Every structure is written in structure tokens, then in C-alpha cells.
Amino acid sequence: MILKTYIPSVKEIEHKWYVIDASQYTLGRMATQIAKTLLGKNKPIFTPFLDTGDYVVVINAEKVQVTGKKLDQKLYRHHTGYPGGFREETMRHLLKRRPEEIVRRAVWGMISHNRLGSRIIGKLKVYTGNKHPHASQNPIPLEIRSE
Fold this sequence. Notes:
alpha/beta, two-stranded antiparallel ribbon, CATH 3.90.1180.10, 4-stranded parallel β-sheet, about 150 residues, 5 helices
């Protein structure tokens, strides 16, 4: 008797839509659950090299909670590509300017940085306020377990 590993075909994979209200959760704990959902690790058909995950819509990104002194001490850094183009800003400043970016970067840090990861992060939709244009997909509220 030979047992074979089951690999789902792309046609068999069903992608659901979930919605999560960021105002109720801490950033890091919320981001880990979002990353697991995007990757599909909560499904029995999870395969590391396939996109088995679901879509996640995050609302109220500007109300995300952080612990400790992260608002003033955490720095987001990037380089523009030009000489002297190194830029950094605090979490508080980025939260005022682009609150969606904080949630997106937190989740991106938990996903592989390759072509599949780029496809997976595309299934994350982050919005300020409690309205989003994905109501026609009938998103289900994502339950986050507090461990």
C-alpha cells in the first residue's frame, strides 16, 4: 500500500472573504492571525507552494492598538534610491499619514518575500473607516483567538 501526498489543484481551492475590525485588536496579534488566513494555514488543504489562503479585509486601520512605547520608538525605514535618500519615520507619524500601511507592513513581515508572497499580500485589503467596497463578496467576520 503506497500512500501519496495530496496536492490540491488550483481549481479545487476555494477562496473565502473575511472582514476584521482593527479597532478591537492589538496590531501584532491581529497581524499573525491575518497572515495565517492569507497563507491558508487554517485549512486542511494547506500547501506551502500554492496560494490556498483567503482574502482579508481590514477596516478601521487608524484605530489599531499597540502596546508599550511603540508609537514613539518604532521606526519605519526605507531608501528612495537616490543619494542621501534614507528616510525614517515613527509609527505615530505614519499612523497619521497612512494608517493602512502600518497594518500592511506588519502582515508583510510575516509572509515570505518572494513571488508567492507578493501574490498573497495582494489579497489583503486595508481601509480606514468602517466602509469597504467588498460588500458584494459577503465577507465573514474573522474570529481572532486571544491566546
